[in-house]
Amino acid sequence: MDQNGKEEKQKLPNCSVITAVNDDSLKDIFHQIRTSKTTAVINYGASWCHVCSQILPAFCDLSAKFPKLSFVYADIDECPETTQHVRYTPTFHFYRDGERVDEMFGAGEERLHDRLWLHS
């Protein structure tokens, strides 16, 4: 916890994951994905979710293995308006040419790797 009593975010070194810090930030990321037609994956998680905390370092490591993909992390509690459609954490959404083309529920580094490979 920080000095204000808020839980600190997990810091991950050498990570190229973009973090949505609030709803406006996530809206900007969606806009960037749509307009640039970037191939991207968004990891929807929560700070209180044990499984999310376990998969986040692997998600970060995978961002280095798949440099052509954009990796985004959005905490559902930090982005409540734009993540209200997310029912399970972690949830992964995959985008290609500005459109969502796939989703994956739950963790599993090997499953996630295979799905990333499919979309890279």
Automatic annotation (TrEMBL):
PROSITE patterns to which the protein is assigned, alphabetical: THIOREDOXIN_2
InterPro entries in alphabetical order: Thioredoxin-like_sf, Thioredoxin_domain, TRL33
CDD domains in the cross-refs: TRX_family
Chain ranges of the Thioredoxin domain: 6-120
A Pfam family recorded for this sequence: Thioredoxin
Entries under PANTHER family matching the protein: THIOREDOXIN-LIKE 3-3
Protein name (Swiss-Prot/TrEMBL): Thioredoxin domain-containing protein
Organism: Cuscuta campestris
